[in-house]
Amino acid sequence: MKLLVVCRAYNNMAGGIERMAAALMNDMCMRGHDISLLTWDLADAQSFYDFNSKIQWYSLDLGAHQKKAGWGLRFKRMLKMRRILANAKPDIILAFQHGTFLATRVYTMGLGIPVIAAEREGPGRFDHLKAGKWRWLIYQSFRLASRITIQCESYRNNYPAYLHKSIVTIPNPVFPSQSFANPAGERGKRKKILSVGRLEYQKNQAALVDAFAQIQREFPDWDLFLVGEGEDRKALKKKIESLGLQNRISMPGAVKDMDAVYCSSHLFCLSARWEGFPNVIAESLSHGLPAVGFEKCCGVGELIASGVNGLLAAGNGDAGALARTLRILMADDDLRARMGKAGIESMRQYEPDKIFDRWESFLCTVSGL
């Protein structure tokens, strides 16, 4: 199979989409398939994640992907993409995220190459974005896809019935950890709440900062670590300083050695407004960390079985509810230890070989091989 994966941006991007794309490409490459990557990046782009040297990376190298392109630039991108496709000759194209899918599908009209739309966020995102008013049009555009992949089966019924036959559910792989956290911690030593994610509106770290501020005096031996980078860094830094918590809340930026970070933590929390398949929750659970998130955040309840491997806070975005939920776990070392063990077991269903077998079978079927 000759597979072309399309992502809008890859240059030093440390997000879940880029990580999943790299993992999928690497595995398909190891299975003997011919894999290429196409992005909107400039020619000197560098990947945050490693991928197989056999993978050919094509960059459109036409304007910054962050800026809205005019029709002239879009036409140039279309011509260059078609030249790249003439060289790569893919049997199938897998485009991550709706905007990238739609551009790819339009640019490849008439070439007869199947294009799959890989949805990486739950439909719940439309409840939080201005683009939500256009969801009906976005759903209509998915009629152009050969297939649509989603990460959680519960999302299917949020799409119009006319798309259901085109939808295939494939969750993300969760790589088993070789090292584990000690969520109970050691007596007399400081403990850490960990949150991982891009510092942005979707991840809503401000709610977690507010929640921690409400309970930090009760737990003077606990600190909060916000791992990730993004446009909200300055606003979060200002908020933390205004609360006088700069000695209790750290923002170390993006980190490559996440195993060490998970293993040195005692509790995980994701305060996101919406998700697709929340990789960071899956990773924390696989490292033996109990997890906390909002019950109304799509994707979170797929991984956190409340009362088993973590707890769900009521609603979505309520700092008070999040503080009350965190308090339960921060106060009980034994409960964190029990839930941490359950978390490891709960992730075994997502073992990479099982998930990539499903991807390979699906891709080969759509490509006609």
What is the residue-mean pLDDT, rounded to a whole number? 94
Q: Which secondary-structure class do the elements indicate?
A: alpha/beta
If helices are DSSP runs of H or I spanning 4 or more residues, what is the number of helices? 12
Placed side by side, the strands forming the largest sheet appear as 3-2-1-4-5-6-7
CATH-scheme architecture of the largest domain: 3-Layer(aba) Sandwich
Number of domains: 2
- Amino- and carboxy-terminal Cα gap: 7 Å
CATH superfamily of the largest domain: Glycogen Phosphorylase B
**Proportion of beta-strand residues:** 15-25%
Number of strands: 13
CATH topology of the largest domain: Rossmann fold
Low-confidence stretches: none
What is the helix content? 25-40%
Let me know the largest β-sheet. 7 strands, parallel
